From TrEMBL:
Keywords: ATP-binding, Magnesium, Membrane, Metal-binding, Nucleotide-binding, Translocase, Transmembrane, Transmembrane helix. Belongs to the cation transport ATPase (P-type) (TC 3.A.3) family. Type IV subfamily. The chain crosses the membrane at residues 5-23, 55-79, 434-453, 459-479. It comes from Glycine soja. It comes from the Eukaryota. This is Phospholipid-transporting ATPase. Pfam families: Cation_ATPase (PF13246), PhoLip_ATPase_C (PF16212). Mg(2+) binds at D376, D380. It is found in: Membrane. ATP binds at F110, K133, R168, T248, G249, D250, K356, N379, D380. Residues 402-451 form the P-type ATPase C-terminal domain.
Length: 522
């Protein structure tokens, strides 16, 4: 397994996140720092390095956590064990002289409002430190910029560079807590943890006591590769006339880069970006964007269609979560909907789970179209439950999305046969069987009516029983398992040869066109 370790910007201290509940300062001794520098893993200039790692050592639910754990294993730093709130770490080469015990004094879990998590550790020398990791846009607000400004600027430059490459970034910071600060935090933390009502809000308020004036340790970047077939799947869905919107928590640069990699964005699209800090600014940005979209549609010679018909000059709407805070649940929703309806692609970045659900509700409540949402993590649960159909993808992010979905699949590319093949089969089968049952009921009733006068009811029971078996049970089974009007090979061949568009497969039942022109026998 090849692991790409992106440069972690730090000078004298390094942060290790092992699992969700184990953070520790790796500057345990000069030997560790020398090893890290010798490996060229921690510096300010180099960007990345490929390392071959053994398999089957640790399994975690996060890419960053897994990456750093394996790096520390290469550096001979191992997690010895954990007992309640005590964590033991030792050097695998010299476990006797390099054995450390840390006390996990408390932890603030990640939430979508703070966009960060923190842990308070007690060190062997009785000192107390708090370590924080989180989204760069939120972490940079609580960083003490008077501390190593050159490191802060270098980190910001690297963050921008990594985001433009489509990498997911996090910022890491820490600070020492004196005795009075720790006592204040500990008392508030205990009270909030045992609260019956409003516990989450109280814990969020307590976290602000320690999550401030942080010394920046650096940043990490992880290459979260696209699954196999994602670009082709998005292209197929768009050919079929399905509008694809992407709602992500990634920052704008990362989201745009991934949009190009996945073929969601193309070079011929005109991008309209809305990044506003207040409601009035959002209003003006939306009005200007609506005017621009109308001009693009008029110059393309296509009539304005608020339902989102395609036009010669495709428009990509890019909007961030800060703008959505002022747009959703206000009179600006209608303007956003009109603008999004005229856009070929909508890309929402830095959005929270509730904002994802709000965007889906915006479309669902204003159109008669069927809506579908696909997600793979716990932060997608509210979005998956909002539309008409929800699909959960099982993977490294856990099974919360799968448990909340209507359909579950292993990879995103499986959504193409689900939507374009199986949905078409079900549509045709249901339509066929509805008409068949009307015909069957008419025939059975007429036969029974004739037999009643001719045979005075003799044998009607057996005739009815036989009729149910022959005309009801068997046809349903045959149609359910055998009837396939369009075969998967036919659809794939037609797509590759560009002889038929996917939308004809989707719309064939609606326009009563039940044939493939190149193969009338089917």
């Amino acid at each position: 397994m090849a692991l790409r370790v992106i440069a972690i910007l730090a000078v004298s201290t390094v942060l290790s996140f092992v699992g969700l509940q184990f953070f520790t300062d790796l500057s345990l001794d000069k030997l560790t720092s020398d090893r890290l520098i010798g490996w060229n893993l921690i510096h300010l200039d180099n960007a990345s390095q490929d390392i071959e790692l053994p398999l089957g050592l640790y399994t975690t639910i996060g890419l960053l956590v897994n990456c750093m754990i394996n790096v520390f294993i290469l550096l001979n730093l191992c997690l010895k064990g954990r007992v309640v709130s005590m964590v033991f770490v030792h050097d695998s080469i010299d476990p006797v002289n390099f054995f450390y015990q840390f006390n996990v004094l408390g932890m603030h879990e990640f939430d979508s409002d703070r966009k960060r998590m923190s842990v308070i550790l007690g060190y062997p020398d009785n000192s107390v430190k708090v370590f924080v990791k989180g989204a760069d846009t939120f972490m940079l607000k609580v960083i003490d910029r008077s501390f190593k400004m050159d490191l802060v600027r270098a980190t910001e430059a690297h963050l921008h560079s990594y985001s433009s490459m489509g990498l997911r970034t996090l910022v890491i910071g820490m600070r020492d807590l004196n005795a009075s600060e720790f006592e204040q935090w500990h008392a508030s933390f205990e009270a909030a943890s045992t609260a019956v009502f409003g516990r989450a809000a109280m814990l969020r308020k307590v976290s602000s006591i320690v999550e401030n004036s942080l010394a920046i340790l650096g940043a990490s970047s992880i290459e979260d590769k696209l699954q196999q077939g994602v670009p082709e799947s998005i292209e197929s869905l768009r050919i079929a006339g399905i509008k694809v919107w992407v709602l992500t928590g990634d920052k704008q640069e990362t989201a745009i880069s991934i949009g190009y990699y996945s073929k969601l964005l193309t070079s011929n699209m005109t991008q309209i970006t809305i990044n506003s800090k207040n409601r009035e600014s959002c209003r003006k940005s939306l009005q200007d964007a609506l005017v621009m979209s109308k001009k693009l549609m008029s110059t393309s010679g296509v009539a304005n269609n608020a339902e989102g018909s395609s036009h010669a000059t495709p428009v990509a709407l890019i909007i961030d979560g800060t703008s959505l805070v002022h747009i959703l649940d206000s009179e600006l929703e209608e303007q956003l909907f009109q603008l999004a309806s005229r856009s070929s692609v909508v890309l929402c970045c830095c959005v929270t789970p509730l904002q994802k659900a709000g965007i889906v509700a915006l479309v669902k409540n204003r159109t008669s179209d069927m809506t579908l949402a696909i997600g793979d993590g716990a932060n997608d649960v509210s979005m998956i439950q909002m539309p008409d159909v929800g699909i959960g993808i099982s993977g490294q992010e856990g099974r919360q999305a799968v448990m909340a979905s209507d359909f579950a699949m292993g990879q995103f590319r499986f959504s193409v046969p689900l939507l374009l093949i199986h949905s078409h089969w079900n549509y045709q089968r249901l339509g066929y069987m509805i008409l068949y049952n009307f015909y069957r009921n008419a025939v059975v009733v007429l036969v029974l009516f004739w037999a009643f006068f001719d045979a005075a009811g003799t044998g009607l029971f057996w005739l009815l029983l036989l009729g149910i078996i022959v005309t009801a049970l068997l046809p349903h089974l045959v149609v359910k398992f055998v009837y396939q009007y369009y075969f998967p090979d036919d659809i794939q061949i037609c797509r590759e040869a560009e002889k038929i568009a996917y939308d004809r497969v989707v719309e064939s039942g609606q326009v009563e066109m039940l044939r493939i022109s190149d193969n009338p026998s089917r």
